[in-house]
Amino acid sequence: MKRVLGLARLGWPLFLLCFAPLALAQDERSVTSPDGQIEFRLFLAQPEPGALFHLAYQVLFHGKLLLDTSFLGLEMHNQEPILGANLGLTSSHANSGAHYNSLTAEYMQNGSLGRRLNIEVRAYNNGVAFRYVVPTSLPVEDFQLDDESTEFSFAREVGTAPFGHGSDVPVVVEQRGIGWVAISEVSTKDWPRMMLMATEPKTLMTRLARLPKDPSLAMHARTPVISSWRVISISSTREHLLDSGLLSALEN
Questions:
Q1: Domain count of the chain?
Q2: pTM over 0.85
């Protein structure tokens, strides 16, 4: 997936850069952690000028941008465009559970007869998690998945060298002056295991394990299907990242 050309290289003022991702956003929804220190924003944005609008998100920690505009999508076999592009928000609702606030947003692709995609988000005091839910619809009854295009685009560079051939999760990243992040997953039955690859110095992309009997696919099932949780643990210090209980909370 192509991303927008860095506006800083074009000499845009810094105060304009801070608002550039949101200037292109549509249908924004957000959810915050119970203590108000973590915010997850979900919206539609263009990867590049003139492109279809894609589902995207941002994560803020203590009011600072931790994950910049990161695009979401599922690459369906022999179906274009990607399930995550050309969407319209049909409904959304917020809720709360034990130690988290939640948001569920429902989308329709290409009008009333299009494919459907829901995003479920939970915001805890020590991180956020989200997952895809693909309901049954006429265009997607037989669910054949080529790959998953979930981005984690950090506010600051993480480098490409450690992720050139893909990395197992958890992956721990420091964002100096902001905090520490660990990206991991909580598996859901039948969803393929994920790895992370660097596509840009600031961006990691999810890649899925292949089916042993058909390496051209990552998954073949019947809808409805629910993905594994994509978990973003967040802390001011590295020591508290992976012992926060966030993963065990999502397993229940």
A1: 1
A2: yes
